[in-house]
Design a protein that fits this description.
Length: 252
């Protein structure tokens, strides 16, 4: 069990990458707080983990709110007695379209969920990790942050911010034995796929995007979970400030 006796919070855990990460973590021995703004999705994932013999609790959370982030730490300590790994996975995007067509409300929402959430998680979890002698952040960014496509300018920018924040956090928090790393997925057949493509989700449209990935397929939640398993485990105890591109060669 690679995560035996670890306690993790996974935001956006009710679907997509977050669901994959939460289930993989539980399968490797971690106790998991499944955090999601969706009651139905988050509770479903937590219930499925428990039914499979794992340990999980659902906590509803809007990651752009400090009070909700406080609640995630409180829930981890109350239910499982510890907190070791914070996976900042929750994210959103605007529909793929020209940059000037994205309105201010959409822009604010993207940066609140994708970027402010990491600031808030640091405000809440860094003091705890310092008290207990260490911990780990894993921030789910995107290949869009290093190889941006037209039409997703503000989303791309938010993920670029996540990458830079993660590296800077790693440098500052290293002396506290707090590790901070990123995983950069390429496009995946998750709930936001049509938004990322900006066109209907058809086999023909998918193929246009698959054609840009040397290994010839989208990423999957299990692909991302595998990277997060490594970064959350003691195998990565000397790894901090890195971004792992899980992208089938998209960024080569």
């Amino acid at each position: 069990m690679r995560l035996k006796d670890k306690v993790a919070v996974v935001t956006g855990g009710g679907s997509g990458f977050g669901e994959g990460i939460a289930k993989a973590y539980a399968g490797q021995g971690a106790s998991v707080i499944v955090a999601d703004i969706s009651q139905a999705g988050g509770q479903r994932v937590a219930d499925q983990i428990v039914e499979a013999g794992g340990r999980a609790r659902f906590v509803r959370a809007d990651v752009s709110r400090r009070a909700d982030m406080d609640g995630l730490l409180a829930a981890a300590l109350a239910h499982f007695g510890a907190m070791h790994i914070m996976v900042n996975n929750a994210g959103t995007t605007h529909r793929n379209r020209p940059m000037l067509e994205v309105d201010e409300a959409e822009f604010d929402r993207i940066f609140a969920i994708n970027v402010k959430s990491i600031y808030l998680s640091a405000q809440v979890f860094v003091p705890h990790f310092r008290r207990v002698g260490g911990g780990a952040f894993i921030n789910i960014a995107s290949t869009a942050g290093i190889r941006p496509r037209p039409g997703l300018t503000w989303y791309n920018s938010s993920k670029g911010a996540v990458i830079t924040m993660s590296k800077s956090m790693a440098g500052e928090l290293g002396p506290d034995r707090i590790r901070v790393n990123c995983v950069n997925p390429v496009i995946s057949a998750t709930g936001l796929l049509a938004e990322f493509m900006g066109v209907p989700d058809t086999p023909e449209n998918r193929q246009k995007f698959v054609a840009t990935i040397p290994m010839g397929r989208f990423s999957t939640p299990q692909d991302i979970a595998n990277a997060c398993l490594y970064l959350g485990s003691d195998e990565a105890e000397f790894v901090t400030g890195v971004c792992i591109e899980v992208d089938g060669g998209r960024c080569v």
